Every structure is written in structure tokens, then in C-alpha cells.
From TrEMBL:
This is tRNA modification GTPase MnmE. Belongs to the TRAFAC class TrmE-Era-EngA-EngB-Septin-like GTPase superfamily. TrmE GTPase family. It comes from Lawsonibacter hominis. GTP binds at residues 230-235, 249-255, 274-277. Homodimer. Heterotetramer of two MnmE and two MnmG subunits.
Length: 456
């Protein structure tokens, strides 16, 4: 039994089409009460998964739109429950009246993500697929779309499940031998478990190695704009983002807060953080900003070190250069290329490896910067799309699984008894189960029955 949820599924602005969505035991009855098919046959008696033309009724029973409706009976629906959808015109007023009608038929407002949560609870999606739904909606680059779409189709889930299945086999075999001594089952050998553990470890290491790429494709690259006051950080941020966001001033040290802006560059999203100048200061407000910018640098994947190319380097530039070096990757941006050059490019290139001459004022050189970013953060095109770990939750679970497998290997090598080794295997399984949302107890039991035919 599940209560009936309803929501406006489309964006809350006027558009060509708007969709009302329903799921739950009463979904089809509720939709049927507020939608009158032109054919005269009630919606609830129509065929599954067909578009039916008719009139949408408001809370007072009056016609508020000409629309299309579709019903999908459990379990052949997104949520696995009875569902209905009404596609009407994308008028926020029509949609809210339509929703009100559905509430009067006993539906309640769906919570954020509740349709997808129900899909997970009914086994229509695993957890990685459920996460991919949100990632796909939020995707800002073609690479992010490919990754989320692949993950949604189950690519990551299958990759995890292959490891999971290998370990479930081991556990199931062990329990079968132990719990059903009367059955004729091959005895349990430590070579079998050793081989399974080796394979699991290798697969998990490979999986964890995808996290770097997955993280920047899906979440963007944390990127700090470093440089002394007046080097042109805020101007550059504005040039990159394409609109005015940070306050640009002529007074040094006025960018006191860090601001984060997102821009697409070289196929990835840069999460740009403009910082207060990285210089020592007596001013407490500014000191807070400086402190924050140090934190930002420590957490960044990339520092864009901005230098004013039209003036000789100063002590403050030197400090900024030293601090930018704390980031794992640095691109030195020699800004203000529209003015005569006053710095030694060769020296800077030797020091930082990556250097780009740019002008925040004219936009010159930003395409070359995009090329450098693409080189540092390759998205890999179609290759591996969908099978990367993309968020901290997934990576933490995979890491715990790997640690458990390594512990099991150590225990096995030390000659510890099989059941002690299997405790580690079980922990590894539970970590992998968290990743996809699988439940080990059920899976081991099911495997015992299907693979070893115990009890027939
Ligand atoms: P920040 O303190 O590093 O954030 O520097 P700002 O972005 O506030 O810029 C400081 C000054 O340099 C401002 O007067 C900008 O107009 C100027 N500026 C920034 N970039 C350029 C550039 O590419 N060319 C020229 N000519 N001036 C620039
Ligand atoms: Zn600034």
C-alpha cells in the first residue's frame, strides 16, 4: 500500500508544455477523476501507456485545458507503482489548478525526489541510477550528460555488482557448506576465496581510480583565482563567466569575500573562486578573507595564478606565486595583454610549466586557456561514460569495500580461520551494498538457493 503523490514535474515558469505527475495506489483513479477523455471512455479504463486526448478539469469541475494523459499500471512504470501523467499547456496557473484538483481526489504533494525514491524502493533503479537522475538534470557539459546517462542506464551499478557478485558467491558457498552439511556441496577451499579476493581488489582499485575524473566531470573543478590585488582576478572571473558577478574596483584589496561562480571551459565546469588578495594585512575584515582564500587554495584542484603583465612583478606577486603552488595544478595567467608587456614570460614559463597570456579586458587568450584546462582535465569522450565514481558517497563506500577486501587478504595470508576472513568479506559486501542499495542478507540467501539448489 502506498499513498498517492502528485507534483508539477516541469519547471515553474510558463512554457509550451507542463506535466502533472502522479504515483501510488490511487493515482489512476485520481487522474481519471480530473481528466475527461474525448472518446468518452474513462481514463481508468483506457489502455496502459497510450496518450489519451481530452479535457483537464479544475477543482470546481470546469474545463481548464485540452491535454494528453497517460496511465501506467504497476509494475510497468517509472516508480513501479500505478502512475499517471497529464501533459497540458505549460501555464503555471493551469498546472496549479490541475494539481489542486488532484489533491481533492486524495493525492498529496510529492516530496523532492519522491518519485525516484519510490522507483528505488520498488527495485526499478539502484542507488547509483537514482543519483544519476539528479546528475543528469543538473548536467552542465556534454561529458556530464554522457556520464549521468550511462550511470542511469546502469553501467556503474553493473560494474559494482560484478564485484559484489564475486564476493556473494564466496559467502554463499561458505554458508551452504556450513548450514547444509547433508547436501553434496564442494568443500570450501582457501584458494577459491584467495582468487575471488584478488579479483575483487583489482576491480575495486580500478573503480576508485575513476573517481578523479568522475568528480570533475560531474561536480566541476574547484578552481581558485589567485594573485595580488589589482592583478585582474575579478575582471578575469567576469570575463570567464560572461557576466558581471564580482565587484570590480580600482582600490586594491576590495574583493573581501570569496565568491564562487561556475563557468564552462575546455569541456569541464570550473567552480571559480575569486579570493581576497593573498597578502599579509593588518585589516581584520580583509584578514578573514585572506584566511578563507588560503583554505580555498588548499581544497582547489586548480589555481589560476593571475599576474599583471603590464607591470614588473612585486613582492606581493611573489607571495601569491608561492601560495598558488599549494594547489595540485597551476596555470600562470599573464593578464592585461592589451598593454605593453613588462614581465619575463620565459622565466614564468620555466617556473610554472603552464602559462597563458590573456586579457580580461578584450578576452584575448581565453581560448588558449580553455585548451590548457581541457588538457589538465580530459573528459575522455565516450570512453567509460557512466562507469565512473562521481560523488563522495560512492567513493567512500568503494574505499571501505577495498579496505575490507585487503583486510580479508591479510587475514587469509596469516592463516586465520575461514569464518574470520569471511567477516571481512561480509563488511566489504555491506559497503558495496550501500553503494548500489543492495541488501546482502537477502542476496546471499537468494544465491544459496539459486546456485546451490539447497532445499530445492
Ligand atoms: P583584482 O584585484 O585582482 O580582482 O583586480 P580587478 O579585476 O579588480 O582589476 C584591477 C584593475 O585592473 C581594474 O582597474 C581593471 O579594470 C584592470 N584590468 C583588469 N584586467 C585588465 C586587462 O586585461 N587589461 C587592462 N588594460 N586592464 C585590466
Ligand atoms: Zn578582485
Amino acid at each position: 500500500m502506498s499513498d498517492t503523490i502528485a507534483a508539477i514535474a516541469t519547471a515553474p515558469a510558463p512554457g509550451a508544455i507542463g506535466i502533472l505527475r502522479l504515483s501510488g495506489d490511487g493515482a489512476i483513479a485520481a487522474a481519471s477523476a480530473v481528466f475527461r477523455p474525448a472518446s468518452g471512455l474513462p481514463l481508468a479504463e483506457q489502455q496502459d501507456r497510450r496518450l489519451i486526448y481530452g479535457a483537464l478539469l479544475g477543482p470546481d469541475g470546469s474545463v481548464i485545458d485540452q491535454a494528453l494523459a497517460t496511465i501506467s499500471r504497476a509494475p510497468h512504470s517509472y516508480t513501479g507503482e500505478d502512475t499517471a501523467e497529464v501533459q497540458c499547456h505549460g501555464s503555471p496557473m493551469v498546472l496549479s489548478l490541475g494539481l489542486e484538483s488532484l489533491f481533492r481526489q486524495g493525492a498529496r504533494q510529492a516530496l523532492p525526489g519522491e518519485f525516484t525514491k519510490r522507483a528505488f524502493l520498488h527495485g526499478r533503479l539502484d542507488l547509483t541510477q537514482a543519483e544519476a537522475v539528479a546528475d543528469l538534470v543538473d548536467a552542465e557539459t556534454p561529458a556530464a550528460v554522457r556520464q549521468a546517462a550511462g550511470q542511469l542506464s546502469g553501467v556503474l551499478g553493473r560494474r559494482v555488482r560484478a564485484v559484489y557478485d564475486g564476493l556473494v558467491d564466496v559467502l554463499a558457498h561458505f554458508h551452504a557448506v556450513l548450514d547444509y552439511p547433508d547436501e553434496e556441496i564442494d568443500p570450501f577451499r582457501s584458494e577459491t576465496i584467495g582468487g575471488a579476493l584478488d579479483r575483487a581488489r583489482e576491480a575495486l582499485e580500478g573503480l576508485l581510480a575513476t573517481y578523479d575524473r568522475g568528480r570533475y566531470i560531474c561536480g566541476g573543478v574547484p578552481c581558485v583565482l589567485a594573485g595580488r590585488p589589482n592583478a585582474g582576478k575579478s575582471s578575469l572571473l567576469n570575463a570567464l563567466v560572461g557576466y558581471e558577478r564580482a565587484i570590480v574596483t580600482d582600490v586594491p584589496g576590495t574583493t573581501r569575500d570569496t565568491v564562487e561562480e561556475r563557468c564552462r571551459l575546455g569541456g569541464v565546469v570550473l567552480r571559480l573562486i575569486d579570493t581576497a588578495g593573498l597578502r599579509e594585512t593588518e585589516d581584520t575584515v580583509e584578514r578573514l578573507g585572506v584566511e578563507r582564500s588560503r583554505c580555498a587554495l588548499a581544497a582547489a584542484e586548480l589555481a589560476l595564478l593571475v599576474l599583471d603583465g603590464s607591470a614588473p612583478l612585486t613582492v606581493e606577486d611573489e607571495q601569491a606565486m608561492e601560495q598558488a603552488a599549494a594547489a595540485p595544478r597551476v596555470i600562470c595567467l599573464v593578464n592585461k595583454s592589451d598593454l605593453p608587456l613588462a614581465v619575463d614570460l620565459e622565466r614564468l614559463k620555466r617556473r610554472f610549466g603552464r602559462l597563458c597570456v590573456v586579457s580580461a579586458a578584450t578576452g584575448e587568450g581565453l581560448d588558449r586557456l580553455a585548451g590548457q584546462v581541457a588538457e589538465l582535465f580530459p573528459t575522455g569522450g565516450d570512453q567509460g561514460a557512466g562507469e565512473l565514481l562521481t560523488n563522495a558517497r560512492q567513493a567512500a563506500a568503494a574505499r571501505r569495500a577495498l579496505e575490507s577486501v585487503e583486510r580479508a587478504q591479510t587475514a587469509l595470508a596469516a592463516g586465520v580461520t575461514a569464518d574470520a576472513v569471511l567477516t571481512d568479506v561480509e563488511q566489504g559486501l555491506s559497503a558495496l551494498g550501500e553503494l548500489t542499495g543492495a541488501s546482502i542478507r537477502e542476496d546471499v540467501t537468494a544465491r544459496i538457493f539459486e546456485r546451490f539448489c539447497v532445499g530445492k
